[in-house]
Design a protein that fits this description.
Chain lengths: ~160, ~350
Amino acid sequence: MVEVRLRVNGTAREIDVEPQVSLLDALRERLGMTGTKKGCDQGACGACTVLADGERICSCLALAVQYDGREITTIEGVDHPLQAAFTEHDGFQCGYCTPGQICSAIGMLAEHKAGAPSAVTEELDGDGAELTDDEIRERMSGNLCRCGAYNGIVDAVREVAGP
Amino acid sequence: MRPFAYVSARDVESAVEAVAEHPGARFLGGGTNLVDLMREGVERPRTVVDISRLPLTGIEELPDGGLRIGALVRNSRLAADPLVRSRCPVLAQAVLNGASGQLRNMATVGGNLLQRTRCPYFYDTASRCNKREPGAGCDAMEGFSRSAAVLGTSGECIAAHPSDMCVALAALDAVVEVRSVRGTRRVPFGELHRLPGGTPHIETALDGDELITAVELPPLPLAARSRYRKVRDRASYAFALVSVAAALEVRDGAVADVRLALGGVGAKPWRAHEAEALLRGAPAVEESFRRAADAEFAAAEGRSAPTGMPDSRRAADADGQGARAGNEFKIELGRRTVVAVLRRLADEGSGA
Ligand code: FES
Ligand code: FES
């Protein structure tokens, strides 16, 4: 057992975990926070996306011990215009991918604001591409939606990103 | 996941000591490949030495104008770095074409270099795989080979190296700095990965206790005009069927200098030496590009559909040959992608 201290949504939490326990399982099974979802458990779907010190990661491939001392934000701690926008634009159907989509979009908007390029950014030398639909789709490609709510998701993200 | 002992390393010295002391121990960086393989039971280290807190996170300019990239720089930081973007766009583009936003925030440069060369049969512990279990045989040979390599394969293994970043690093003549209890050494990128031959389970020239500490890029002015193009089954978040990293300098209508490397087609990140040799000094026109691409793929070996595939499935494929399940198509796709990237670089160059 290893003692792991996390700040989860602003609250200090301490847990004892075996080294093989993922951050995802620690959140869901040890802390009872089931908002973060497990889809593939192998980094392929994004359902488990949380923010670690503001950066989006897949919590299924993160060992909890590696995140000792870090600030973790899960959907339970999110209060963001994206949530209303997802409802407004039908950005989901069953809702299983939604916590991951929202956390991912928050991280993505911060990356974009900081000037990070994407694979579809033509001018790498410039200081930030406009957040076109192509940019949104590329930057959100790590989040799959089995219900196929992609058009609504893009609409919601575009609205919140603003002009 | 099989239990293991966990050691969190404070500094490089204690990290290499910890791995040297525990036979079969593995370094853990971002975890995007190792944790996945451990969960599948493909990797079974008894000890994991966590290096994710080591201070190897800088990107610095070297006195000679080259770049030094710390082994624990996250993929997303590397791709966003202003020096990388302006001096070698091919590297930023390659990184951005790999994995997803979440995984790029986790994955490290050193980890990318040491991710396993893999195919679906390597992951499937019910299949035979010489890489997973030396001498067991290879089910990919007669199986679904769409993801497999056509260059540098052996009778033991046809898996393709999956990295995008490594294709750019191969083109850029990177040098890898490696540390162990025996000291520090520098490995030219082209010598880091090994071809499978008769020992596909040995993928690199590094010993198990050696830690990658940095990747250095020599100054290469021509890299300022460089590109990465990736062809894959979906628009994003998929491995390459074929990818091309290239830098091109054209003077008076002729190729003054060129760097070319291929991904998705090689058993290791594939530097296209043959093509480069033919291109240097040749007229910068489509015909030369095509001849160079043909030469590079001359030794390529593709595979058709799995032998046991039902005729109905074969017929469903566009050409009726089961081409989608095989990988023969990569040879012509690879040639055309090389030509397309070189043509684009040449066009951009003549417009400047
Ligand atoms: S559950 Fe983590 S990416 Fe699918
Ligand atoms: S809303 Fe059902 S998976 Fe996305």
